[in-house]
Amino acid sequence: REAAEREAAHQIAVRDRERPALEGRSILAADALRDAEIALAQARAEAANEDAARRIAESAHGEAQRRMARIAAEILRLEQDAQAIGDGDALTAALRSAIATARQSGEAIGHCEAAIATAALARSASIADRSTRDSALAEARAALARNDAALHDYAQNALEAFREVESALASESSLRAQE
Q: CA 5, CA 81: separation in Å to the nearest integer?
């Protein structure tokens, strides 16, 4: 009986020494979970910004392509007019102007395509970063769950030890009463 009391007291002491470490790990896991949730929200905001930039670049690219098509049609019309009329100085100047505008539009399309490619790369990087942050969040949640389970086990073991001590004390009291 005394051995059971000593064992129960020893178990309680061990569990009391372990409790601060468990609580500390639980606090750290909760902090890591909060940090991971903040990082995830930031990654989602970055992805939304990058999507908006990509849509703007795609819109500009589409507009540049439409402009280029209009210019190409205008060049074709001017070339046909020049051929029908002959080599008039005014038509030649208009044709040269249209060709220069077409070159500028081609350069603008190239810049838009480069901006779209850059936005796509940034979006891919953002998606990879978000995946990493999702993984960190899952790890933090798992650590928190493990700490909760450890705290639950600690509480159960402490309760069991208290019951053993209570039983030992009741047995001792009963034995004294019988003496």
A: 111
